[in-house]
Design brief:
Layout (H helix, E strand, L loop, with lengths): L1 H26 L17 E13 L14 E12 L4 E15 L16 E18 L10 E22 L5 E7 L7 E11 L2 E8 L16 E10 L2
Antiparallel strand pairs: 1-2, 1-9, 2-3, 3-4, 4-5, 5-6, 5-7, 7-8, 8-9
Length: about 240
C-alpha cells in the first residue's frame, strides 16, 4: 500500500500539469504567438515521465548471494533535460523505486541472519535522484530525442525497509512474515550509471558505490550491479 501511495503522489503533479497544459492550449491564440518554441524533445527544455525495471546481478560478498531473476527494482519518476547544443545536454531526475533482493537460501547464507526459510526477501522503498550529462548520437535529428548516451551519478534515500519470509510447514500450512528492518540499512545510497537511449526506450546499467547495510551489523553486501530497461513518456 505504501508503494502505491508514493507512486500516486509522485505522478500526480505530472498529470495535473498535462491537464492544465491541454486547457491552456485550447485557449491560446496560435496565430498571434510570436515567442520561439523553447519546449520539446530537442528544444531548450524538456520534461518527461519514466517507468522502468532492473535486475540486480554481479559478484556478492561471501554468504550474500541472491536470486538475480527475482531481485528486481521497479522505478518511476520525472526527468528534466536542458539542451546545451545539438550534441550535448544535461539533466536531473527525481522519482521512486521499489527494490527487492531475493535471498538465496544456502547453508551459509547470512542476509540478514543465518535462519533459512522457504523464501526470503529484503524490500526497500527509495526516493531516487540523479544528474547526468548527455551525448547525442544523432545530432542532425529534428525535434525528437534521437539516440544518445547518458553518463551520471545517482543518490537515493531509503524511505523504509522490510524483511519478508515464507516458511512451508510439514503439515502443509504456509507461514508468511513481514518485519520492519529499519536499523539494518544505510539511509543514503549512491553510485554511477550509464544509459543508452533509442528515442523513448532506454537500456541502463548502474553500479552502487555505497554499502547497502550498516558496517556494524556485519551483514554481507548484495551484488552492486544492476541493469535494466526504461520507457520515457513525454509530457505535453
Amino acid at each position: 500500500m505504501r508503494s502505491v501511495v508514493i507512486c500516486i503522489l509522485i505522478l500526480l503533479p505530472g498529470w495535473l500539469m498535462q491537464a492544465y497544459g491541454q486547457a491552456v492550449l485550447m485557449e491560446e491564440d496560435v496565430a498571434g504567438d510570436t515567442v520561439p518554441d523553447m519546449y520539446g524533445p530537442n528544444r531548450r527544455h524538456f520534461v518527461f515521465e519514466y517507468v522502468g525495471f532492473g535486475s540486480h546481478g554481479g559478484q556478492a560478498e561471501k554468504n550474500g548471494r541472491i536470486n538475480g531473476a527475482s531481485s528486481i527494482q521497479s522505478r518511476l519518476g520525472y526527468t528534466y533535460k536542458l539542451r546545451i547544443n545539438q550534441l550535448l545536454a544535461t539533466g536531473i531526475s527525481l522519482g521512486y523505486a521499489y527494490d527487492v533482493f531475493a535471498i538465496k537460501q544456502t547453508d551459509n547464507k547470512a542476509i540478514p541472519d543465518t535462519v533459512r526459510h522457504s523464501s526470503e526477501k529484503m524490500r526497500f522503498h527509495l526516493l531516487t535522484s540523479n544528474a547526468f550529462f548527455r551525448i547525442s548520437l544523432s545530432p542532425r535529428r529534428g525535434n525528437i530525442l534521437g539516440n544518445y548516451i547518458d553518463l551520471g551519478g545517482y543518490g537515493n534515500c531509503v524511505l523504509g525497509a522490510n524483511h519478508k519470509t515464507i516458511d512451508d510447514m510439514p503439515d502443509g500450512t504456509r507461514i508468511k512474515t513481514v518485519v520492519s528492518r529499519e536499523g539494518l540499512h544505510e539511509t543514503l545510497q549512491y553510485g554511477l550509471f550509464s544509459k543508452l537511449g533509442f528515442q523513448f526506450v532506454v537500456i541502463f546499467a548502474e553500479y552502487r558505490m555505497s554499502d547497502l547495510f550498516k558496517a556494524n551489523r556485519n551483514i554481507p553486501e548484495t551484488p552492486r550491479f544492476m541493469a535494466g530497461i526504461e520507457f520515457n513518456l513525454p509530457m505535453q
